[in-house]
Amino acid sequence: MTPMGLPRAADGVRVMAAETGIEVFSGVAPTTKTDLDLSAYVGAALVWLRFENNSGDATAQQFRTFFNGGSSGFSYIDRTTTVTDGNIGWALARTDVNGILEWNATAAKSAKVQIIGWWA
Fold first, then answer.
1. Does residue 42 lie within any of the structural domains?
2. What average pLDDT does this structure show over 36-56?
3. In Å, how far are 2, 4, 57, 99, 108 from 22, measured between CA atoms?
4. What distances in angstroms separate CA 42 from CA 6, 65, 94, 118, one per listed residue?
5. Which end of the chain is more exposed for a tag (fewer CB within 10 A), N or C?
6. CATH code for the domain of 103
7. In terms of pLDDT, which residue wins out, 111 or 70?
8. Closest by CA position to 114, among listed 41, 56, 60, 32
9. Domain boundaries, position 95
10. What is the distance between the terminal CA atoms of the chain, rounded to a whole angstrom?
11. Phi, psi (5° rounding) for residue 85?
12. pLDDT tens string 81-109
């Protein structure tokens, strides 16, 4: 079970999270490929992510997801989402067996990432 009492995706259950999502990152977005550890919620899964740009300026932020440990290219579903300040973007990304994916952004600006749902 996850900290929220939901079954883990590794338990063989297909789960959709609440409409508001599960916050998994809040802070300054990394500009180099960085692990995003979702293991408290999923193992190997396809996750639906919500990206929020809170930069406070007119700069559009691009968020990218990658399969963990990949030497090049994007995650299972290639995805770059461009989000202007105060707005949101979406991506589908694949985690590895440990529930980790990699991500980055085009600028070190304030951002939030939430899991909206996942399929195992």
1. yes
2. 90
3. 11, 9, 25, 15, 22
4. 10, 16, 10, 8
5. N
6. 2.60.120
7. 111
8. 41
9. 25-119
10. 14
11. -55, 135
12. 677 777 888 888 888 999 999 999 888 99
Say if 18 falls within a structural domain.
no
Domain-embedded: residue 98: yes
Average pLDDT, the chain: 79
Mean pLDDT of 38-55: 90
Does the predicted TM-score (pTM) go above 0.85?
Answer: no
For 5, 7, 90, 93, the CA distances from 79, given in Å and listed in that order, are 30, 27, 9, 8
For residue 22, pLDDT over 60 is answered with yes
Contacts of 81 (CB under 8 A, 6+ apart): 51, 62, 63, 89, 90, 91
Alpha helices in 1-120 (DSSP H): none
Phi and psi at residue 71, to the nearest 5°: -80, -20
- The tally of domains found in the chain comes to 1
Q: Which residues of 94-111 are buried (b: 16+ CB within 10 A; e: fewer)?
A: bbbeebbbbbbbeeebeb
Are 109 and 53 in contact by the 8 Å Cβ rule? The answer is yes
